[in-house]
Structure formats: structure tokens, C-alpha cells
């Protein structure tokens, strides 16, 4: 029985993965904000397999808060001997710059700082696994120079496009840090080939919300279909960094110096 930890595991692709691995007989920890959605998810699986309830764990957390991310790490370190797969799938889209109660730019905090805290903090549990894997649903392929090291929180000149590109590139660099620390780790930045149907959580304009709803219904993949490539990568991990769109492998830019620079900057900000 493997231990699978999934952020954003109550909706969309995260929930689809949680259902799959509970049905497969694994221990699944879901990190999210909605206990009711988690209970509904577990009930759907236990209708076929009553034992799933004992293998399902929920940790309530707002991962845009560094304190909550650290609390999650502390809980997992205290209650688990290893983590076989860590899936980073939490999402909340913000078109405008917002600041958390801790003073961080909210999208940067959710889409990168939380992942940094989880990947680095849970490194001992990943090292304890025989074939550990991190799947980070940060779509690969951002420009190599997308990180603004002088203004990581984008106090100046925030745009949704710049913010998105910086988060994606930073998560690729996080893979450099993680695999340098643990050469046995498979670290995968992954994105779907097309839109995935979900509740589209976020604070966005009416135009984006309508477009997502219409296109999702017309062209979007069902979450359980979209995650099939992820399941394959988790079940047969290969050590080192890799990037995929669906099942298609993508090239990754090097970035050892940038990764070290990012780690130093984040350590100072945290």
C-alpha cells in the first residue's frame, strides 16, 4: 500500500486522483479547504469499497498561507513514515494582485511558496520511499528568464500573464533543488493537453468565467480522463526531472544557478 498526498484533492483532477488511489487500495491524504467535498468523495468510493474510509485522510488548509503549509508538513512528518507520491494540484485563479494576511502576493504564495514548503519540508518522507515521485501540475515550458528575482512578489508591474509565467518557471527550478537533494526522486512538471472540466475556483472577470464554463462544457476533458497520464507517471516513476503535456514529454531548460538563487531569495522571504 502506497501513501499518496494530494493538494487540491477535493475537486477536478486532484479529486479524480484521490478516488483512483483510494479505489486501488492506497492510503490517500487530501489537503484542501472543503471537508464536505472530501466527505462526498470518500462516500463515492466507499459505496464499492467500505475499507476506503479508513485509508482516507483530510487536512484542512489554505495553502496561500505559509503557516498552513508548514502546519501540513508538521502533521505529515508526525503521522507518516514515508510518502510515495506527492501531487501538487491546488488551484485558485486570481487575475489581479492580492496580498495575503501574511503579506505575500496571493498567487505566488499558493502556486509556488506552498509547493516550496511542502517539497522541501517533506523531503525526509520522500527519501524514505523506495520510488518517490512529485507531480507538480505547473504547466511546463515557461521562458528561462520568467522569474523576476528582484521582485518575486511582483509589487511592480503585476500582470496575470507575468505572474503565471513566473510561477511555472519557479516550479521547474524547484525540481532542480529537489532532485539535487534526492537523486532517487522523480520530479515531474505536468500540464493537460487541453482544458479540464472543474469548478474553476477563483476570483476572475466575468468574461474569463463564462469562457471557461462554455469551453469546458464543449471541449473540456473529464477529470478522470485527464489524469490518466499522471497515474502512469506515479505508478512507474523515473528518477530525475521531467516535463509532460499529457503523455508528450517536453524539454526542460537548465537552471542550476537560477535554482540556487531562487532558494536563497525564498529562504530570506520566509
From TrEMBL:
Keyword Oxidoreductase tagged: yes
Gene3D superfamilies: NAD(P)-binding Rossmann-like Domain
GO MF annotation list: oxidoreductase activity
InterPro entries per UniProt: NAD(P)-bd_dom_sf (IPR036291), SDR_fam (IPR002347), Sec_Metab_Biosynth_Oxidored (IPR052228)
UniProt keyword terms in alphabetical order: Oxidoreductase
Pfam families noted in UniProt: adh_short (PF00106)
UniProt keyword NADP, yes or no: no
Protein name listed in UniProt: Short chain dehydrogenase
Organism ancestry: Bacteria, Bacillati, Actinomycetota, Actinomycetes, Pseudonocardiales
Amino acid at each position: 500500500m502506497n501513501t499518496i498526498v494530494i493538494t487540491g484533492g477535493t475537486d477536478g483532477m486532484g479529486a479524480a486522483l484521490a478516488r483512483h488511489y483510494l479505489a486501488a487500495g492506497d492510503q490517500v491524504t487530501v489537503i484542501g479547504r472543503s471537508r464536505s467535498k472530501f466527505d462526498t468523495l470518500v462516500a463515492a468510493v466507499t459505496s464499492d469499497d467500505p475499507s476506503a474510509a479508513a485509508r482516507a485522510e483530510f487536512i484542512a488548509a489554505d495553502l496561500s498561507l505559509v503557516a498552513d503549509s508548514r502546519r501540513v508538513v508538521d502533521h505529515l512528518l508526525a503521522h507518516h513514515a514515508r510518502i510515495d507520491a506527492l501531487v501538487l494540484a491546488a488551484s485558485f485563479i486570481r487575475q489581479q494582485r492580492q496580498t495575503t494576511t501574511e503579506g505575500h502576493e496571493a498567487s505566488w504564495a499558493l502556486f509556488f511558496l506552498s509547493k516550496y514548503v511542502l517539497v522541501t519540508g517533506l523531503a525526509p518522507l520522500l527519501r524514505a520511499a523506495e520510488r518517490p515521485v512529485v507531480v507538480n501540475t505547473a504547466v511546463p515550458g515557461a521562458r528561462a528568464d520568467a522569474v523576476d528575482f528582484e521582485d518575486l512578489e511582483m509589487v511592480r508591474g503585476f500582470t496575470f500573464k507575468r505572474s503565471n509565467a513566473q510561477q511555472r518557471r519557479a516550479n521547474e527550478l524547484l525540481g532542480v533543488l529537489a532532485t539535487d537533494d534526492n537523486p532517487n526522486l522523480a520530479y515531474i512538471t505536468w500540464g493537460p493537453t487541453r482544458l479540464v472540466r472543474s469548478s474553476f475556483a477563483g476570483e476572475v472577470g466575468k468574461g474569463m468565467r463564462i469562457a471557461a464554463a462554455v469551453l469546458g462544457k464543449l471541449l473540456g476533458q473529464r477529470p478522470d480522463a485527464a489524469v490518466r497520464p499522471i497515474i502512469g507517471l506515479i505508478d512507474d516513476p523515473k528518477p530525475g526531472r521531467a516535463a509532460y503535456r499529457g503523455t508528450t514529454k517536453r524539454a526542460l531548460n537548465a537552471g542550476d544557478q537560477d535554482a540556487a538563487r531562487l532558494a536563497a531569495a525564498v529562504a530570506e522571504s520566509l
